[in-house]
Amino acid sequence: MRKAIRYGQNTIADKFFLVAELALLILASLLASYICNLYFAPIKPISFENRLINAILFAASVMLCALSVGLYDQKLREGQKGILKRVVITLVFNAILLELIVLQIFSFLHIGFSYLLIASIISTLLLSGFRSIFHYSDITLIRRRRVLVLGAGERASIIERRMRRNVDKRSFDIVGFTPVAGDKDAGIDDEKLMPFNYETDLYQFVIEHNIHQLVIACDERRNMLPVEHLFKCKTRGIDVIEILDFIEQETGQIAVNLIYPSWVIYANGLDLNQRFKTNLDYKLNVILAVLLLAVTWPIILITALVIYLEDGRKTGASIFYRQLRVGYDGKPFFILKFRSMKPDAEADGARWATPDDERVTKIGRYLRKYRIDELPQLLNVLYGEMGFVGPRPERPEFVDELEKSIPYYSQRHNVKPGLTGWAQLKYPYGATAEDAQEKLKFDLYYIKHRSLLLDLMILVRTVEIVLFGKGR
What we know:
Elements: H1 12-39, H2 48-68, H3 80-105, H4 113-136, E1 145-150, H5 154-162, E2 172-178, H6 198-208, E3 213-216, H7 227-235, E4 239-242, H8 243-251, H9 261-266, H10 279-315, E5 320-326, E6 332-338, H11 362-369, H12 377-382, E7 387-389, H13 396-405, E8 418-420, H14 422-426, H15 433-449, H16 452-468
Parallel strand pairs: 1-2, 1-3, 3-4, 7-8
Antiparallel strand pairs: 5-6
Helix pairs in contact: 1-2, 1-4, 2-3, 2-16, 3-4, 6-7, 10-11
Domain Bacterial sugar transferase: 284-467
Family: Belongs to the bacterial sugar transferase family.
Organism: Rheinheimera salexigens
């Protein structure tokens, strides 16, 4: 009997990738220690045990910094120059982290400037070379699973539309789409169709074609599925999965246009947010807010001064901007931001912001790109109106409109809004109702899977948003 494999975002290839990078970083650290010992003659020789501790610490720090700049994003689309750029930024961040924080606490580790420089150079060469081989030789083909989609109608076509790029199919290959009675014509290419008598031959087809996973994606399920064949497939270790769950695990979003009430009721994870409605969650957010204020207060003062000098002293407009937003449980609150638009920006009423909005001031473009305008929201966190991680709060005018046109939109108010979130990591700048629906798919995924570990990962990766000016 074949062993069932847990698929999704943590594949065998991904684990191999992480272990290989960890080994390369430890190797780079040990080589740097050896070179320093050989050519720089330290006053006191460093034992192998301390070198190994240094190597493990160096590797862990580099991997944390790599996560923060998006190098472990499975959907990352970068060429060799882009990868090299991120690797260099990673190692610069790592040097700052080790020098300014870690070594102040653990001074006995004997990590000097020469060691850090040499280890960083070796790591740059090893990581860039390894990533080029891994990505451009498509080593993931070794363990890609073979997927058969049972259905070739409108629901099945969503897989075809959303997963066209190779980067979207790193962990699987679509063998084909099998038409099922009741499917609506959705225009799937004929060469991708696998027509056979699924009612009598499904199990035999799956075995003969070495199928690892069956995705149930037919438009009409009632009395249409060969239950006995699906049961036999399941008992042979073949994964049988619903299209909603398949899209969720492969894209990190929930397809709101496919949701039906019974899925919401029986789905695992949607009740986990109750654990976070506690004083502990608030206290953690307050501690983080105080620490961030302690670090960023010079930036806050400089930003306030620049806004005042640009147009504040001429117009008398406030440096800050208060705007009504919808928060936890649908309760309104005033969000606080640095003003990045002209004083008369909404003279004609509320409207969506756009990437090249003419209402944005010159300094405002930089504030918005690097999210500096949102630093005053740390006060909203202290007041308990927001958290660090959660769906971005929207304006009441837009919420009323979106709740009418987008199913389950109000569910994003089941958790506190956040300074950053899963949708900000996964979706570019959005300023339309269509963008709001796409972001909702990621917000619902976050609400379903919310955990302390996921929150920490999002916080770390927010560095990528700030550094590269990604979505808002």
